[in-house]
Amino acid sequence: MIAILGGGVSGISAGYHLGLRGIENTVFEKKPSWGGLCDNFTVDKKYRFDYFVHLSFGDDEYLNKVFSKSTDYNIHKPIGYNFYHGYWIKHPAQNNLASLPAEVKTKIILDFINRPDITDPKNYNEWLLAQFGDFFAKNLPGAYTRKYWTIPANQMTTDWLGPRFSLPPLEKLLKGAFEEQQENYYYIKEMRYPRKGGFKAFLQKMAAKTNIHTNKEVVLIDLKSKRIDFSDHSSVYYEQLVSSLPLPELIKRIKDVPSAVLEASKKLLNTSGQLVSLGFNRPDIPKNLWFYIYDEDILPARAYSPSLEALDNAPADKSSLQFETYFSKKKRAKLKGGALIEHIVEKGVKMGLFSNKDIEVSDYREVKYANVVFDFNRKKNVAIIHEYFDEKKISYIGRFGEWAYLWSNHCILSGKRGAEKLIIDQ
To answer: In whole angstroms, what is the distance from residue 303 CA to residue 326 CA?
Structure first.
């Protein structure tokens, strides 16, 4: 039997694709429901929220077929916005400066023209300076980096960027500074979201054909006897092991793990997330599908609207927003629980998003593992851990198994690759 640890998207994918080949496997998930970060919850039994914003925008043909066979979905145009010191800027900000004051636009344009020639940036901050110039780099993505990634840009590498930034030529930057642009410069052309059931509805087909055991928290893994012990005092024996658990969590559960591997796991950095979810007694509160907040005196980095993603996420004639705030061992949470809710409500009113009387329900919860941070400790320590796993024949998949910047579509493909590798090895 192949044991798969973690019932998130990559674990479900691995189990599903192994099952397609008739290979016996079981997915073990510690929570009462499967889905991981793609799971959802309800507030007051009527407002549904995902854990962070989720939208499907991958162009992988196979993956899109799996999704479309699972559920009907809405198609959204990827039009986001950015809040910067009282101004709303269409996303991406560098292409849409028209709404900013003249003095701010002047600084951005002059610094863009005079940006330093850095052909081999040593860190993310140097990359930002080379692309956008000092003012924009420092005050927009630089500020957002501290909020979202919890460390300064000069402490991050550049090997995670991919196509995530639109880099405008001077002509387009100038054009976007003087008039509102109708063209969408976002690197994604459309986004998809299930009409019912939250984002995890996209995974229904795979989950229905996967053997998933919930409420199974791993407490010990004995690699010699190939035994897994769970918190409910049950145990299972396996032939092969696949894990999507966060590397630090997996390492500390392995019996007699080498000290060098344990120390490497302690040097990995991830963000944790605080989710404040609000339900409103009006249908027209959210104006944008999602938006970023650059101001550092406003704690959330990002917000999105579940009710705009799908009407099924809120009662009729009502709406919702969820705010994401991040912390880590490098940056402690400034507020928690009710205090953070109060802060977000106060700031939301000042931002013009809603009034106090509009709020019907509120909810606060934390997620220990939100994102992998690409600091300068990541690569070498992940290599130490993965080398040990390879030696012990442990397959690692997903965002926290690969310890990489993977979106949900990437995680499905990661689970699929992990399954295919096991099939080949057999």
So the answer is: 12
